[in-house]
Write a structure and sequence with these properties.
Elements: H1 2-15, H2 17-25, H3 29-53, H4 57-84, H5 87-92
């Protein structure tokens, strides 16, 4: 079972390349937000998989929940900032 979880974690890490590309090279701010949010979601799942590998799921679930909450708050704060600054609406025209 550990080999399956380890293989799945490696595949998930490789799949994080697409949102990393979108977050770095995205043409708009919204594309970058989506990329960063996808990276955060995949990192949360990756933390839980690491917890299964080390047989400390309870500790890693707490870390993953804290990371997911911080990711959510950061994306909401950044989107509010750009919305108030009118950075998102100018790019969409």
């Amino acid at each position: 079972m550990d080999n399956f979880i380890l293989f799945s974690a490696i595949v998930l890490t490789l799949l994080m390349g697409v949102p990393i590309y979108r977050a770095v090279m995205g043409p708009t701010v919204l594309d970058r937000f989506m990329g960063v949010n996808a990276i955060g979601s995949k990192t949360t799942v990756l933390l839980i998989m690491i917890g299964f590998v080390f047989n400390r799921v309870d500790m890693f679930i707490d870390i993953a929940l804290a990371y997911a909450l911080l990711n959510f708050i950061a994306v909401i704060a950044a989107s509010r900032y750009f919305h108030k600054r009118k950075g998102l609406s100018e790019e969409m025209k």
